[in-house]
Amino acid sequence: MSTLLYVDFPYSGPWGEDMAIAMKELAQSISQEPGLIWKLWTENQEQSKAGGVYLFSDKASAQAYLDMHSKRLNSVGITGIDARFFDVNPALSEINAGPLSGN
Questions:
Q1: What backbone phi and psi angles, to 5 degrees, belong to 83?
Q2: For each of the chain's 103 residues, which pLDDT tens digit applies?
Q3: Contact by Cβ (8 Å): 54, 5
């Protein structure tokens, strides 16, 4: 069953296009993570938070990514990571055009 992973954490910028430029190589490496179907990058400058919503093919892949990602964030001094896992209901998601594949 597909697993949705939600992650956010304190972040002071850059934002918008500057973030897109600064994080391009990271985004390219994330796209190679085992089990990743897609990621939506999130940012909230008013609350100084950033993160993402990820769809993985299974919970084990999502957990392995979160373990690695948390270590990476901690290594640059980021703490206060909020991460949550959700099972995806494909039948209902399909009715509402939920993007359940990489297409």
A1: -130, 140
A2: 899 999 999 999 999 999 999 999 999 999 999 999 999 999 999 999 999 999 999 999 999 999 999 999 999 999 999 999 999 999 999 999 888 876 5
A3: yes
CATH number of the domain enclosing 15: 3.30.70.100
* Residue 102 placed within a domain: no
| Geometric angle at alpha carbon 96, from 93 and 100, rounded to 5° | 40
Q: Give residue 8's domain range.
A: 3-95
Q: What is the pTM of this model?
A: 0.91
8 Å CB contact between 19 and 94: no
> Please, what is the Cα angle at 35 between 9 and 63, to 5 degrees?
45
Longest dimension (CA), the chain: 41
Count of structural domains within the chain? 1
| 100 belongs to a structural domain | no
